[in-house]
């Protein structure tokens, strides 16, 4: 779809999957879907940087919420590969923010990574 210059059609399944995970309140899968979406948008060129930035914001919001709630922290610790996956998603968000030169988001990601290390 990307080669045929129809990126909207290429992203529809990803967007649908994210919405399903959002409605089922599975924050981990929602973050993973946003990661895939951000990677796809990044590959489509600089005209999609604002969309990529928004996806990074959403990933950071997910983990800010998780790390500010003790019950969600426990769920993260008890989930198979929960902390490892959260770490991977936050590193991705931090590196992408650095690449886009949005240093506020990069700092927020680093702060969340530090919080994650203390769990």
Describe the model.
The chain is mainly α. It has helices at 7-23, 27-43, 49-67, 70-78, 82-99, 103-117. Helix 5 (82-99) packs antiparallel against helix 6 (103-117). The mean pLDDT is 80.
Quick structural overview:
With 119 residues, this protein is mainly alpha-helical.
Shape: globular
Mean of pLDDT: 80
What CATH architecture do you see?
A: Alpha Horseshoe
Report the top-level CATH class.
Mainly Alpha
Low-confidence parts lasting 5 or more residues at pLDDT below 50? none
How many strands, which pairing sense, and closed or not: the largest β-sheet?
Answer: none
How much strand?
under 5%
Helix coverage percent of residues? over 70%
Quote the distance from N terminus to C terminus.
Answer: 41 Å
CATH topology: Serine Threonine Protein Phosphatase 5, Tetratricopeptide repeat
Structural class: mainly alpha
Overall tally of structural domains: 1
Task: Describe the structure using short key phrases.
119 residues; Serine Threonine Protein Phosphatase 5, Tetratricopeptide repeat; 6 helices; 80% helix; globular
Task: Present the secondary structure layout.
Elements (H helix, E strand, L loop, with lengths): L6 H17 L3 H17 L5 H19 L2 H9 L3 H18 L3 H15 L2
């Amino acid at each position: 779809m990307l080669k045929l210059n129809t990126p909207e059609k290429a992203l529809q399944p990803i967007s649908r999957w994210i919405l399903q995970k959002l409605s089922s309140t599975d924050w981990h899968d929602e973050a993973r879907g946003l990661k895939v979406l951000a990677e796809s948008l990044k590959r489509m060129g600089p005209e999609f940087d604002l969309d990529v930035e928004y996806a990074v914001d959403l990933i950071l919001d997910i983990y800010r919420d998780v790390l500010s709630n003790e019950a969600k922290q426990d769920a993260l610790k008890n989930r198979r590969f929960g902390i490892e996956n959260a770490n991977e998603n936050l590193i991705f968000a931090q590196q992408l923010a650095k690449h886009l030169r949005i240093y506020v988001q990069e700092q927020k990601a680093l702060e969340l990574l530090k919080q994650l290390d203390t769990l």
